[in-house]
């Protein structure tokens, strides 16, 4: 069984905006307008849903959020769906989504990261539909650093097309942009040098597999449920093995260590040819750093573990396609990530 890739975006297509988790507060609406305008400037029509309220931690009751997401993902006139950002409790949508209907529908790009992993990773695992773990809508106006691509570039790429991304070797270590003060900010503040590093040992790495993964703090809650069967996905879609990526949004090193241990014990990493770990600004502890937490939990896998990849909450962002075939090269001289939509 092959992975289902949505048709590439082309000018005139409609892009749906909804908030399966957190909505947008009034003081952030100007940034939302800037982001929508930038998507429209690429030649797309933007359709904004009703589940956008930002006065609480979710944009609407779970039934309403699930209904609107289903509507957008199964509407043949909408070719991509992107949220403004993540949130906290998208897990409440999972039993309300019609997974058989999603399998039968023409595939649509679903984009996002953070709490959106709660929906996107199961969507790929349960329906075989590729999803884009990349920036959310509110991040879209940022100019993409050289070597990286935006989610819009990837969603417009033809099936079978290989594309390579290389890290800029700079990231933002402190602070964030206040969209209330600068709603039109478009330049990342990349203030600190940093490269990928290998945690499990030394030596060059060249490894391939089908990509799957997401946010540790949200996916750990799905282990042992029908929504997170990576081994079954590997058997059906990637008998050659997986490239599993994970990212810590904000939990301290002890929580990340416990969560990764639990995910490993539940079989999340059983078919991994390598594990990619995103750079994080989440806190360590006096006796345990974030890197040490990863190695403590995942070292027994005896596969390459590459850390400080740009696929998490720390800018800039290297979008990854759940379901795509990936190839990672990491040496002392270069690091690169090639994905093929095959």
Keywords summarizing the entry:
24% helix; 8-stranded mixed beta sheet; single chain; 16 strands; 342 residues; 9 helices; 6-stranded mixed beta sheet; alpha/beta; 22% strand
Characterise this structure.
The chain has 342 residues and is an alpha/beta fold. The chain is 24% helix and 22% strand. The chain has nine helices and 16 strands. The protein is globular.
Rg calculated over all Cα atoms: 19 Å
Tell me the series of helices and strands, N- to C-terminal. EHEHEHEHEHEEEEEHHEHEHEEEE
Outline, from the CA principal axes? Answer: globular
Class inferred from helices and paired strands: alpha/beta
- N-C termini distance: 12 Å
Quaternary structure classification: single chain
> Helix segment count?
9
* Helix share bin: 10-25%
As a percent range, the share of strand residues is: 15-25%
List the strand order in the largest sheet.
Answer: 6-16-15-10-11-12-13-9
Number of strands: 16
How would a textbook summarize the main sheet? 8 strands, mixed
Average of per-residue pLDDT values: 97
């Amino acid at each position: 069984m092959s992975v289902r890739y949505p048709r590439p975006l082309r000018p005139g297509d409609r892009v749906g905006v909804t908030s399966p988790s957190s909505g947008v507060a009034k003081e952030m609406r100007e940034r939302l307008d800037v982001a929508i305008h930038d998507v429209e400037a690429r030649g797309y029509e933007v359709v904004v849903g009703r589940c956008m309220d930002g006065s609480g931690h979710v944009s609407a009751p779970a039934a309403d959020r699930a209904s609107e997401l289903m509507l957008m993902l199964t509407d043949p006139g909408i070719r991509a769906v992107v949220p403004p950002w993540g949130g906290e409790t998208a897990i409440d949508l999972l039993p309300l989504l019609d997974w058989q209907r999603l399998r039968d529908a023409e595939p649509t790009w679903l984009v996002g990261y953070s709490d959106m992993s709660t929906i996107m990773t199961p969507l790929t695992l349960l329906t075989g539909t590729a999803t884009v773990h990349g920036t959310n809508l509110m991040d879209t106006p940022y100019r993409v650093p050289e070597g990286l691509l935006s989610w819009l570039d990837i969603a417009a790429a033809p099936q079978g097309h290989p594309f390579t991304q290389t890290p800029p070797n700079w990231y933002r270590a402190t602070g964030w942009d206040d969209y209330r003060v600068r709603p039109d900010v478009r330049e990342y503040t990349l203030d600190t040098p940093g490269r990928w590093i290998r945690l499990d040992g030394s030596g060059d790495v060249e490894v391939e597999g089908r990509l799957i993964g997401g946010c540790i703090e949200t996916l750990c809650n799905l282990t042992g449920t029908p929504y997170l069967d990576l081994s079954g996905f590997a058997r059906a879609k990637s008998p050659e093995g997986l490239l599993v990526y994970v990212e810590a949004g904000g939990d301290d090193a002890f929580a990340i260590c416990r969560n990764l241990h639990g995910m490993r014990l539940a079989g999340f990493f059983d078919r991994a040819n390598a594990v990619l770990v995103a750079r994080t600004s989440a806190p360590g502890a006096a006796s345990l750093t974030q890197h040490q937490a990863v190695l403590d939990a995942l070292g027994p896998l005896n596969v390459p573990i590459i850390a400080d990849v740009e696929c998490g909450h720390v800018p800039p962002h290297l979008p990854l396609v759940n379901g795509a075939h990936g190839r990672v090269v990491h040496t002392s001289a270069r690091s690169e990530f090639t994905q093929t939509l095959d």
